[in-house]
Amino acid sequence: MTTPILEIRNLHARIEDREILKGVNLIIPAGEVHAIMGRNGSGKSTLSYVLAGKDDYEVTEGEILLNGESILEMEPNERAAAGVFLAFQYPIEIPGVATMTFLKAAMNAQRKARGEAELLTPEFMRLVKEAGTQLQVDTAMLKRPLNVGFSGGEKKRAEIMQMALLKPALCVLDETDSGLDIDALQVVSKGVNALRSDSRSMLVITHYQRLLNHIVPDVVHVFSDGRIVESGDKDLALQLEAKGYADFDGAAA
Amino acid sequence: MAIAFPVRLGAAENTLIEQLKSVGADATAERITVAGLPTRRVEAYHYTDLKLLLKAIPPLAQAANEASAPALRIAGAYQLMIANGMIQSHATAPAGVIVGKAAGTALSTRDDVLVHLNGAFARQSLTLTLENSVDTVIQIDRRIEGLAAHAADSVKIFVADGASATIIETFSGSDAAHVGNHATYVALGKDARLTHITVDLSARAVSHFATNEYHVGEGANLRTLVVHAGAGLARTHVFPRYEGTGAHGDITGLNLVSDGQHADITMDALHAVPHTTSQPLFKSIARGRGKSIVQGKLVVARDAQKTDAKFMHQGLMLSDEAEILSKPELEIYADDVVCGHGSTCGKLDEDSMFYLMSRGIPKEEAETMMVRGFLDELVDPIEDEALAEALHGVIDGWLLGK
User: Fold this and answer.
1) Is residue A118 part of a domain?
2) Which residue among A55, A80, A97 sits closest to B369, beta carbon to beta carbon?
3) Which domain of life is it from (chain B) (predicted)?
């Protein structure tokens, strides 16, 4: 069997004294899209932050392997260069840093970390234009400070555009559907679907089944009280939508 | 009856008194003999106690024999130099610029010890008259070279009606424990436009004092930027007076302080007539045990109705031990004005840092990006690209020079 892109083994993590992840086990083989569904406060977003390396969280037990290599000791920027990308639920506004400047810095930092040559400006502009056209991100938007004054839809489109430019091995989408209307949801989903490939895996975190009509997952996991309590195919999402999470809490107890 | 308590004079004060007497400035010598250097009990010097901070005064400067490399090169700029208080020979001035000399300081009399000292010690003023729109950036390179010296110099700038110019003054020199006392007087005629930047790049051992006095005429537009990025002790006075209807000032400043440094920008602005506006905006970045002070006073005269002025100071702490002090003052005698003040202080936002790093940007680069972003408002309005680039260089150099 080939090495999965992501393998999480018995992952425990806490913030201060509160344990939030209580033994997560998850394997995502190359090319698959997995969804994690769970109610607010179940620890879904924590899982995404722990994957990306936010230092508010302390991993107390377990392992995260990306392409078979542990990433727990890596800084967030090293994880990014290794292929982890987190599309934020609430992308951060950074005044004074033009979106274009930021994109170039990010792409070149990752290339540098991987020992590749920096992008020349014409090549960079071509890539940005290409990705921007598909996600309806225009030049005017790219000149504005990063995420500052962007609408909810613009922020999410900008996130997916970054994902398209950075070409990660593992995409983690944290509640990408929140704050989106139907039209924006379609643009974003189309962008995500265009990035599905045999060499890339995705972890889609959501608490509504709606997003999964657009980004159809291979596997759906139910998350409750800091771990995965049930896994199944995409129909599991429909069951959840019909019955709610209550039945699955029982399984966790 | 007021009872005068004798002031105990320190070594710096005794040297100053001797030096003042040697140049015949007996009145100023007498003032220092009676009152000493200002302490924290003098409101304007509350955070910069000169009696405490100024331990010694080096001998009065002699003419410089050699000059170090320019502290800042700006591509295409017209350069003038003052070394150890003496105006140096210079190349032919660009069209519309008249360069000359005048005796003594250019500053107006004012009840302030640094202004008095400049008046006593500055022997000559470099004069610049700008007759029309000057596209070439003018750089006045002010140096103190050689062994530790007490030097005073002065510049007087007239911007004629309708004229415009960009002037940058840089302060640097050898790395001895100099005390510099620099003066710049600027008068802007009707509808004149001036960008005036002063950047201290002196060595750490230097005590740098500067006073920038501005007279802004009818419809004139002034943009200033003070940058402290060198001396261990620095204080720049910014004294704008808005004297004609429609006069406007964007008065800005930046203290970059590292461990052991003390930088102070003190603005005292007077809105003297109706319908004048100003936007003073200052920023401080402090690391180690660095200390940054910004004092901003807005005075609105009794008749100066419709004045619109707001002082703002934003601080960024890069360490827990750093100190950023802010003192806004409003003194308003008119009754139909919009005046305000605000101060903020914080650290680099951790969520923003995580966001940038999660995209692959290493920590130090992310910090630099965020600091550049924080300072963007100060450098962005400077139109000359070579000048803006040189200022970015100063800021980046400070950021990297931990």
Assistant:
1) yes
2) A97
3) Bacteria
Strand partners, A64: A8
Instruction: For residue A32, tell me if it sits in a domain.
Output: yes
Q: Tell me, yes or no, if B333 comes closer than 8 A to chain A by beta carbon.
A: no
pLDDT tens digits, one per residue of B323-342: 999 999 999 999 999 999 99
Contact A105 B357 (CB under 8 A): no
C-alpha distances (whole Å) from B38 to each of A80, A214, B34, B196, B244 are 55, 72, 11, 29, 33
First-to-last CA distance in chain A?
A: 33
Q: Give the domain extent around A29.
A: 6-252
Is A45 a domain residue?
Answer: yes
What is the count of structural domains for chain B?
1
Query: Does residue B65 belong to the interface with chain A, where contact is any CB pair within 8 Å?
Result: no
**B325: containing domain:** 71-348
In terms of CA atoms, which chain B residue is nearest residue A77? B360
Amino acid identity for residue B149 in this structure: A
Letter for the amino acid at A243?
A: K
Q: How far apart are CA B283 and CA B253, in angstroms?
A: 6
- B287 within a domain of the structure (yes/no): yes
Q: Does residue B89 fall inside a structural domain?
A: yes
pLDDT tens figures, B117-172: 999 999 999 999 999 999 999 999 999 999 999 999 999 999 999 999 999 999 99
Residue pointed to by tokens 């290794």: A82
Interface test with B, best of A75, A79, A97 (most B CBs within 10 A): A97
User: How buried is B371 (Cβ within 10 angstroms: 0-12 exposed, 13-18 middle, 19+ buried)?
Assistant: buried
B13 within domain boundaries: no
Q: What is the least distance, in Å, from the CA of A91 to any CA of chain B?
A: 8
Which chain B residues have a beta carbon less than 8 Å from that of A106? 356, 359-361
DSSP A233: S
User: Which of A52, A54, A106 lies nearest to residue B361, judging by beta carbons?
Assistant: A106
Residue B230 lies in a domain: yes
CATH number at A170 reads: 3.40.50.300
pLDDT attached to residue B6: 72
Contact residues, B window 350-369, toward A, CB-based 8 Å cutoff = 351-352, 354-363, 365-366, 369
Interface test with B, best of A92, A167, A173 (most B CBs within 10 A): A92
B167 close to B138: Cβ distance less than 8 angstroms: yes
Which amino acid is located at A176 in the chain?
T
Rounded distance between C-alpha atoms, residue A239 and residue A241, angstroms? 5
So what's the ipTM on this one? 0.95
Residue B66 has pLDDT above 90, yes or no: no
Contact between B369 and A77 using a beta-carbon 8 Å cutoff: no
Placement of tokens 């005629």 in the chain: B189
Q: Provide the token pair at A26.
A: 């998850």
Query: Is residue A1 included in any domain, yes or no?
Result: no
- Selected residue of A46, A48, A55, A77 to mutate for chain B interface (largest B Cβ count, 10 A): A77
Q: How far apart are CA B369 and CA B157, in angstroms?
A: 36
Question: Residue B362 and residue A105: Cβ atoms within 8 Å?
Answer: no
- Based on the number of CB atoms within 10 Å of its own CB, is B222 exposed (0-12), middle (13-18) or buried (19 or more)? buried
Q: Is B381 in the A-facing interface, judged by CB distances under 8 Å?
A: no
Any idea which of A55-59, B89-93, B330-334 has the lowest mean pLDDT? Answer: B89-93
